[in-house]
């Protein structure tokens, strides 16, 4: 791929998301605040991704990132629905119908990256940011029913980043940890179940347990980073790949 061609998949996914928003809006199911929020997410996220590809001089986008970009398009539509839910009722089955594949595809992009031997820092970061924003919008929706404490799930990642601006040692590279992915998946499942209303009596418990697991996971990372900053843990150096790959 040339520099221009590598930009086509992100732009295509943004257009896919915009088409979905337009379809819902045309059907009369999305107030103005909804499509504005959706298009804002799609525009900003695509611009940031294109900038990252340019900075890294990416030579190809990769199928794993195509899957993640598809998830991002779904997140854009979900963002529109959740924003609209603050001013008008929304079709909950549609919200759940979008959230389920957005969550399920989180396992697919990692599998594709491993199968194609195309795991990269950019791909992992792209996946993580899509996860984080999906949890943010789902927690915003569920918080309308269970209370503002649910927003802690969606804000945890962003709070960690903000504190990292003030405490540089929090910005160090964390080692891969499978449990981190499991906890992220649990957040999405718990929030989606709560949003569906199918288990109304248990929703609070499910989300509270998910939040507790998230606090534990972030807490473990903070402790590891604190020990690392004091030289109490050893880190392994990793060789950099000779070719920049965006997959």
Automatic annotation (TrEMBL):
Keywords: Membrane, Transferase, Transmembrane, Transmembrane helix. GO terms for molecular function: phosphotransferase activity, for other substituted phosphate groups. PROSITE patterns: CDP_ALCOHOL_P_TRANSF. One of its GO terms (biological process) is phospholipid biosynthetic process. The chain crosses the membrane at residues 7-26, 32-50, 62-88, 124-143, 182-200, 206-227. InterPro entries: CDP-OH_P_trans (IPR000462), CDP-OH_PTrfase_TM_dom (IPR043130), CDP_ALCOHOL_P_TRANSF_CS (IPR048254). GO terms for cellular component: membrane. Coiled coil: none annotated. It comes from the Bacteria. Belongs to the CDP-alcohol phosphatidyltransferase class-I family. This is CDP-alcohol phosphatidyltransferase family protein. It comes from Agromyces mariniharenae. The lineage of its organism: Bacteria, Bacillati, Actinomycetota, Actinomycetes, Micrococcales.
């Amino acid at each position: 791929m040339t520099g221009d061609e590598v930009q086509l998949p992100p732009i295509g996914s943004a257009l896919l998301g915009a088409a979905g928003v337009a379809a819902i809006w045309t059907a009369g199911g999305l107030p103005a605040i909804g499509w504005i929020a959706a298009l804002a997410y799609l525009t900003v996220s695509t611009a940031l991704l294109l900038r990252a590809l340019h900075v890294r001089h990416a030579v190809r986008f990769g199928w794993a990132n195509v899957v993640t970009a598809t998830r991002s398009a779904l997140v854009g539509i979900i963002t529109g629905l959740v924003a609209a839910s603050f001013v008008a009722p929304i079709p909950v089955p549609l919200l759940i119908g979008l959230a389920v594949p957005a969550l399920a595809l989180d396992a697919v992009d990692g599998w594709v990256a491993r199968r194609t031997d195309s795991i990269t820092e950019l791909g992992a970061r792209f996946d993580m940011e899509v996860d984080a924003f999906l949890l943010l919008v789902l927690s915003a929706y569920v918080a309308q029913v269970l209370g503002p404490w649910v927003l802690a799930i969606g804000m945890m990642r962003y709070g960690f980043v903000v504190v990292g601006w003030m405490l540089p040692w929090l910005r160090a590279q964390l080692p891969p940890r499978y449990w981190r992915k499991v906890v992220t998946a649990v957040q999405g499942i718990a929030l989606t179940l709560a949003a569906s209303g199918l288990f109304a009596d248990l929703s609070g418990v499910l989300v509270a347990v998910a939040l507790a697991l998230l606090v534990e996971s972030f807490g473990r990372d903070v402790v590891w980073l604190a020990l690392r900053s004091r030289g109490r843990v050893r880190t392994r150096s990793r060789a950099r790949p000779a070719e920049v790959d965006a997959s």
